[in-house]
Give the backbone structure.
Amino acid sequence: MFRCLVYYSKLKVEKSPHFVDFKKIKYSRYLGGYCRKVVDIGMVKPIVKDVFFLNQKSEMASEGDGQVVVDILDTLKANEKGCVGLAANMIGVKKRIIAINMGMINVAMINPVITKKSGAYETEEGCLSLVGVRKTTRYEEIEVEYLDQNFVAKKNKYRGWIAQIIQHEVDHCNGIVI
């Protein structure tokens, strides 16, 4: 028997090393009905470098923005050698959606809000949308409220490098470019 799995935004069939791309499939009976719900196939988007666009505040995202979530995760995966996080405005969409590389996996956060922060420090950061590095203030520990990829409310604490990435991407959502 074969069973289909969602792997990033592609459909992977177990016992096969290949990805099967199905466009705009919501539910599938492929291979005898063993497929789970599948979202539209994502697309790797070009990175926006227009500072005027990036300086605009993003709007709240809704469940209708699910395709943006898929696209931002695909774009982060495609840029993983030089990028650890993306905000939706970096792919040309003014919505409060970010994607973060957390080591082995990429995680999407929808409408993220930093509710607590502590342990301020000075650092330098680069950005895929800009050339060079710039000084900025970040916090060692933060607490974030957001919706996950399935639009379920979450509240988590982050520290260190992951906290720094989240702060950088939330700044993008707020129209702040370092």
